[in-house]
Amino acid sequence: MRTASNRNVNGLATRPKAELGHVPLHDVVTQLPGLLCVTRGPEHAIHTVNRLFLDSIGGRSVVGLTIREAFPKGSSERLEAMDRAYATGGPVSFKDVTDAASTDTRGESRFFNLVVQPLKDGAGQVYGLVTLGVDVTEEQKTKQELAELALALERTNRELDSFAYAASHDLRAPLRGIANLAQWIEEDLVATGPLKSETREMLELMRIRMHRMEGLIEGLLQYSRAGRSHQDPEMVDVNELIDDVVDLLAPPEDTMISIASELPTIRTERLLLQQVFMNLIGNALKHCGRRDCEITIDAKRVGPFYEFSVRDNGPGIPPDYQERIWGIFQTLESRDHVEGAGIGLALVKKIVETQKGRAWVESALGAGATFRFLWRKG
User: Fold this and answer.
1) Is residue 15 one of the residues assigned to a domain?
2) Residue of 226, 377, 217, 247 whose CA lies nearest to 307
């Protein structure tokens, strides 16, 4: 004879009643991992509460009192909602609730997500309500901390913009003064006779370094603002954007810039994508190091991104430098030999990463370099 299990009318296996044991309903209620309060009647007389509910109101004895008597300073909106749930028989929910009824034993405010569910008898008539709650105090604190952090970040960004503007103005003014002095010195020297070649070279070097300083200031401004100022996204034909970039860069006539395949049209912030291509193509032009410089631009789809590439036939980049070049002020050659502030690739990396993409380089000595970056399709 089988005694370990029986079959119910649906054919499902069940344990014999003798093996089930008795689980007191009181134990279930008191050990629920959330707040519980059962009320009866239209006045919402409190019938049953669990330990978490008592803890949330500071341990006060409220059984037998109506909700209005237990919490005279409670939320009128919640009381009205309980009245409505009792009258209509429909459930009501609240999020991030805190009021006089929601303080712990230390008097600190707690936050809860609550659901008020009507209780009905066999005839479908409402005779009470059960309120279930989940403590979301830590989540609410996190939200508040994030909001405060966002405000602090916004304030810092405004201060950084103001500082960058002031620093730019204060640094450019003396540079213009030095440039004027250099010009006056040159004019005075020319008036007394032909300039020595060495003197001319020194004056030219002074002008070059002043222009470099201006470029450095502008690069720092761009870097500080990258990812913080936004334009409205628009449909951008990347083929046309590359044409505009090449036109602005005005490469030497013997340089060949080509597009390997048709580039996409994407919805994005045009200026940011333009800055990336300006710096990558400009970088290839500066470091190609040969008269027959060839630069090839290509793209392919990679999941939710397009992978763009800018390839050149220059001298390539040693493996030890392929990570370092993305740092600010990093250059492979002397700035007196190759003009640049060492900010371009750092700016590319920062812009691309603010767009949730990434940038990297593939290169071997003597075999050119290919700079790649991922850009969202929009």
Assistant:
1) yes
2) 377
Q: Amino acid letter at 309?
A: S
At position 314, the amino acid (one-letter code) is G
Q: How far is CA 245 from the centre of its chain?
A: 28
Is residue 155 domain-shared with residue 270, that is, in the same domain? Answer: no
Tokens representing residue 244 in the block: 């505009």
Phi and psi torsions of 321, nearest 5°: -105, -5
- In angstroms, the CA 83 to CA 89 distance is 10
Asked if residue 96 has pLDDT above 70, the reply is no
The total number of residues shown for the chain amounts to 378
Residues 6+ apart with CB under 8 A from 371: 280, 283, 284, 309, 310, 311, 348, 359, 360, 361
What is the CATH classification number for the domain harbouring 55?
3.30.450.20
* C-alpha to C-alpha distance for 22 and 157, rounded to whole angstroms: 64
Q: What is the pTM of this model?
A: 0.51
Question: Which residue segment(s) compose the domain that 164 sits in?
Answer: 142-225
For the stretch 221-248, pLDDT in tens is: 776 666 666 678 899 999 999 998 898 8
CA distance 35 to 137: 13
